[in-house]
Amino acid sequence: MNKKKSDRGQQRSEGKREVLYLGGICVCLSFIVVVMVLAFADPFAVEYSRVDAQSNATSSARSQTATVPAEPVVTKLDTIAYDKALIKNANYPIATSTGTSTASTTPVKHQWPVKTVYPNAGALLPFNRIVAYYGNFYSTKMGVLGQYPPQEMLVKLQGEVAKWKAADPTTPVIPAIDYIAVTAQGSAQADGTYRLRMPDSQIQEAITLANQAHGIVILDVQVGLSTLQSELPRLEPYLKQPNVHLAIDPEFSMKDGAKPGSEIGTFSSADVNYAATYLASIVKANNLPPKILVVHRFTEHMVTGCQNIKPLPEVQIVMDMDGWGSPAKKLNTYQQFVATEPVQFTGFKLFYQNDLRAPSTRMLTPAELLKLKPQPLFIQYQ
To answer: Which pairing describes strands 378-381 and 315-321: parallel, antiparallel, or unpaired?
Structure first.
């Protein structure tokens, strides 16, 4: 009996020692935590002040160290990387210190890369190549967007993106949904404009699909007998979004009142500059990265006064070769009507159906287009 009491007393004594030991550890750990919190209080306070300079401090340490909000971080364009990408895109020989050339000896006939204003930070070009699927969800004849169910279409788009990544691994590829938001019509419509505006639900569908593809949206405009001044303001709520850009199609801009499709229309440099200035105003007002403005072209008179088109820091202009036919015909059109009148960047459209019309038997490949001078940074599939 006495032995049992002795054992119990010993257990209680050992239990007290264990409790005291654990308590000591807890006190030590608490002390360490307090020291760490005090040591790192200032950096955390400064970081929170950067995220929300208007919020009130929730601790005395934070309020003492964040009385003056930190200046916002200003992101600048890497002009050295920009110039380097421009030279690569120009695809012309570059003289070295030994007098040799790092590329072919084809003479430079035109001013590529174009010497123009630097874009603001966040510009997509020339750091990336954009690969776009074009069309309208209501029509199977206007392009690939209307020819396949949405998810099947996205799979095909990613397939083309993969081909371009393989052909030029040094240039990242951005997928795009190029949706015709204003379509030219063969009939006058009630207001006599020969154009039809797509409903908001369809434009939103294009944005949703682009988000699924982790890409951008390009809203294409065919004005018919209307004007850019009448059509662009309606698209402003969408153009305020950072991943939504613009394309304008001179083919269906009927300055002389003719019915769209009966002849090829035209835009002047004033039209293009208006679109660029309008986009620039949206970029400035909403603190956005630069917008892309695509201008379709496949004849000389589709765009007049190219030398007067002025890229802006807020807008990057792409002249897109929009003609269809055999490979030789398309390459000749690109050289004649796009490369010979430099603006800023170039694009090239490929047609799944029209490029295979006789006598043509095939489409151009990424490898072939990468040999062009300059290399197109916007590729469009219809």
So the answer is: unpaired
> Which residue has better confidence, 367 or 28?
367
- Contact at 8 Å (CB) between 246 and 234? no
Task: Please list, residue by residue across 314-338, b when 16 or more beta carbons sit within 10 angstroms of its beta carbon and e when fewer do.
Answer: bbbbbbbbbbbbbbeebbebbeebb
Residue type, 324: W
**Residue 150: other Cβ atoms inside 10 A:** 15
Whether pLDDT at 11 is above 60: no
Residue 236, classified by CB atoms within 10 Å of its CB into exposed (0-12), middle (13-18) or buried (19+), is: middle
Tens of pLDDT, residues 342-368:
999 999 999 999 999 999 999 999 999
Does residue 349 sit in the same domain as residue 203?
Answer: yes
Residues spanned by the domain of 39: 2-65
Whether 28 maps to a domain, the answer reads: yes
Q: Are 128 and 104 in contact (CB under 8 A)?
A: no
Main-chain dihedrals φ then ψ at residue 172, nearest 5 degrees = -60, 150
Q: Which amino acid is located at 83 in the chain?
A: D
Determine contact, residues 272/309, Cβ cutoff 8 Å: yes
